[in-house]
Task: inverse folding
């Protein structure tokens, strides 16, 4: 369901799920750290452990949606100062910032996937 909202054509709706996705990926990072090899028995661990193979499909789907959502809409006016304070333009730029936050969270979880996405 969350991906339906995130992929919604209206970016304001998609933007409304950013706090949830950011928080979710922060938790996923802590849960996936528990699966890392080399932790000592006395090292603190999360109460849940998630294998990266379980998480990677969700991360890939999110990254694919980010690619689709980064494109400027047809109505966006580039370089026109009269639109800088336009509510719709400001909201869209905030949405792009939220996409960056989600990408950064994903990168913290799986660096290799993040680099692959950038290429």
Result:
């Amino acid at each position: 369901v969350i991906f339906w909202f995130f992929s919604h054509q209206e970016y304001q709706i998609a933007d409304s799920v950013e706090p949830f996705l950011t928080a979710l990926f922060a938790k996923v990072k802590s849960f996936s750290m528990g699966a890392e090899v080399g932790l000592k028995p006395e090292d603190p661990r999360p109460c849940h452990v998630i294998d990266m193979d379980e998480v990677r499909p969700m991360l890939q789907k999110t990254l694919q949606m980010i690619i689709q959502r980064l494109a400027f809409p047809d109505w966006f006016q580039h370089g026109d100062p009269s639109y800088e304070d336009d509510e719709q333009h400001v909201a869209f730029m905030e949405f792009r910032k939220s996409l960056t936050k989600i990408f950064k969270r994903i990168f913290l979880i799986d660096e290799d996937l993040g680099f692959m996405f950038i290429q």
Notes: The mean pLDDT is 82.
